[in-house]
Design the sequence.
């Protein structure tokens, strides 16, 4: 089996030596961060399995789909609607960008002091160590932040890249119109690549598929309101990370099984921590696989993360159940584009919705404290933290602001700060 | 006279103690950086005079205008069209943000690791040391970068703020439409503030005023093609910095006088440096007054800056002569919005126009080298530098990339790098 994949990776142009190094590290990290957890839900086995074959099984699926004439579309950000890509008969795969493993290659072109996610997004392609990226026919980027926006320009020299404009003042009529027209342009681009003309039926079906995925993820989120929560923050984070690149229908089915187990746990008052464990919300930048750094620190310090206001958390489902009752392609795409502008990304100004979300979630999930998480030099989230702290103060929820990258250098310092924060909460 | 201004500043709510400290430093810096230059054009006396009364005379003019019922509109970025503000019968004043004097106040709210211009823009208001800011009835921001976009949200808690959305993919029809509608919305906002309904005549007149200003600045730019150039880079930079906040008609007149003197110098082959001095282009982030750091280093090292591809250089005039022949408000505003999208800011993706501009300017101004200037953590310009270097390599023009802030800490290091760059050029 292993040998088969080596051939597959070689055919994809993977830098085998560097890739071997990466794969040698991952199991160790995963064992330490994930498998060491006590009392995990049994249904997490599926996600463990996905990680154990992270560059194998799913990549093989993509290549099989390509053999059957399908195209593979890679993306990095929620603002590229899954519904459109699925409707075009392409396979969508979220790329990761959660490791500093390729910083050296990235920094040959990109500045050092940019966000680690952007560095990794570019670096994994530049270093040729991501088989998903190698398998992709096109990468669809977006203009959600300066760093990514400009990085995509450089990425376009390494692989076909198409960038979607996301407006910045989403409450204006002209911004909604711009995004709708950008979605129509993306539809044309996808049709051009796949040779498949998107129909009303395609969109109705794809909206249904993604609605089902969001519904089950919403249920997963809800189970964590229980005291104690039936699943760790780390495990829930992993489920969301895998949601970005797994087959959506299988993922929905497997996550349904997980949710059923969690609901059973709640009935039986089975939790992953003691009832007294401090309940923490993490809010801010996305955490791409394998970025488990903050979650591991927090949950190793005796607290439990019960909700992520993040692209790997509540923002992932914030477009809600999209109405697919319309009967023209234009109206269905309008429904998609309107719904997606409900994702409260810090790229918007103002972005009051995010602050309101955090305040609401703090109450609903009975959190004892919020950790505001920014990737280094992410100006959007970094600056928005000021408003967040002010609003949380009004409801007496303390906030700790962490800005970090993917290195291990500051793990000691962050651990100390998190422990002090938890101690303050426990008092 | 001095005493009058103290009363004026106090009435504006200025933090007098801190403001005194600022004003005590400026003349020393100005003497060292500007007045020490040899063979300056005589017409620079006007700009010296403006700087010598930097927080006095012009502020008094603004207050007199306010007494006469006018409103004062402050702004930071070229993407807020002067034409619209002037047409609304308001006085437009560009704020500076070129000093780290208020970093402490700014960092109470903003992250430390953001662009120094953004920190200063916010800090000068937070610390109450800028009489222009204090005199402003509204500040008009824009979404040209993540940092400014989010900073304006916090600024809005300190003073009335309105943010214009600038699109990010300016070549699409939907982006042009969005910007046009944003301009129409800004027009309404200005009318609301000033109580003055903008007419066709107002726009025709204001377009004419700003066209005249741009025409003379274009002439100033052109004089520097001469070998040797008749004016230093530092002096030209100052003229552009003052263009942001001086009365436009007086400024145009005074700059006309300067240009005439420079043209006379060219005829007589009078230059500010020896013909053999290396000719440098600076390309990148704007330099707000009193940010003269890089120019001072370069010109103290024996080179001369002959062109700035910058908001305080060629970008300032890149909207060109706007056609004011249309006869409806909508058509005139359409002419403005279309013209402004020709400013090749790194906020755009792709922004090929800027690279093309630099390559063209390098030839036109016979430059020996380009210094790419980025403010710290300005992802847009920082990342774009990679493309710039590649394109300049093709025409055999060397490029030095400098990323810096407003502190003096790296002056020694930058000087060493600039000197090494010049030495390489001279070989």
Sequence:
């Amino acid at each position: 089996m292993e040998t088969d994949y080596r051939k597959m990776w070689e055919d994809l142009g993977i830098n085998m030596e560097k890739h071997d190094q990466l794969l040698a590290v991952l199991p160790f990290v995963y064992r330490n961060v994930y498998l060491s957890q006590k009392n995990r839900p049994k249904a997490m086995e599926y996600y463990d399995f996905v990680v154990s074959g992270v560059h194998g099984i799913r990549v093989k699926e993509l290549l099989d789909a390509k053999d059957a004439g399908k195209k593979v579309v890679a993306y990095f950000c929620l603002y590229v609607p899954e519904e459109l890509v699925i409707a075009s008969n392409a396979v969508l795969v979220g790329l990761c960008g959660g490791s500093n493993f390729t910083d050296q290659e990235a920094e040959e072109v990109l500045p050092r002091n940019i966000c680690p996610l952007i560095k990794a997004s570019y670096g994994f392609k530049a270093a040729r160590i991501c088989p998903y990226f190698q398998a992709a026919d096109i990468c669809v980027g977006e203009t959600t932040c300066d760093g990514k926006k400009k990085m995509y320009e450089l990425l376009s020299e390494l692989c076909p890249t198409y960038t979607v404009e996301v407006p910045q003042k989403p409450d204006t009529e002209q911004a909604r119109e711009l995004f709708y027209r950008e979605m129509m342009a993306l539809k044309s681009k996808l049709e051009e690549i796949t040779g498949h003309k998107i129909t009303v039926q395609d969109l109705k079906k794809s909206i249904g598929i993604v609605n089902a995925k969001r519904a089950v993820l919403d249920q997963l989120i809800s189970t964590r309101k229980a005291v104690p929560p039936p699943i760790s923050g780390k495990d829930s984070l992993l489920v969301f990370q895998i949601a970005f690149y797994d087959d959506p229908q299988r993922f929905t089915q497997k996550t349904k099984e997980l949710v059923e187990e969690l609901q059973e746990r709640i009935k039986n008052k089975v939790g992953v921590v003691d009832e007294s464990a401090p309940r923490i919300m993490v809010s801010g930048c996305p955490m791409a696989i394998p970025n488990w750094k903050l979650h591991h620190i927090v949950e190793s310090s005796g607290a439990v993360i019960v909700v992520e206001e993040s692209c790997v958390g509540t923002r992932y489902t914030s477009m809600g159940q999209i109405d697919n009752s319309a009967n023209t392609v234009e109206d269905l795409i309008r429904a998609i584009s309107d719904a997606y502008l409900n994702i409260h990304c810090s790229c918007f100004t103002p972005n009051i919705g995010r602050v309101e979300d955090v305040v609401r979630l703090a109450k609903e999930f009975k959190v004892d404290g919020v950790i505001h998480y920014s990737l280094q030099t992410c100006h959007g989230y970094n600056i928005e933290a000021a408003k967040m702290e002010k609003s949380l103060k009004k409801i007496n929820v303390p906030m700790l602001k962490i800005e970090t990258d993917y290195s291990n250098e500051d793990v000691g310092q962050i651990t100390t700060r998190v422990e002090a924060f938890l101690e303050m909460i426990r008092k």
Remarks:
- The longest strand of chain B covers residues 369-375.
- Chain B has a mean pLDDT of 97.
- Residues 2-178 of chain B form a domain with the Rossmann fold fold (CATH 3.40.50.11890).
- The beta strands of chain B are 72-75, 91-94, 138-142, 161-164, 279-284, 304-309, 369-375, 399-404.
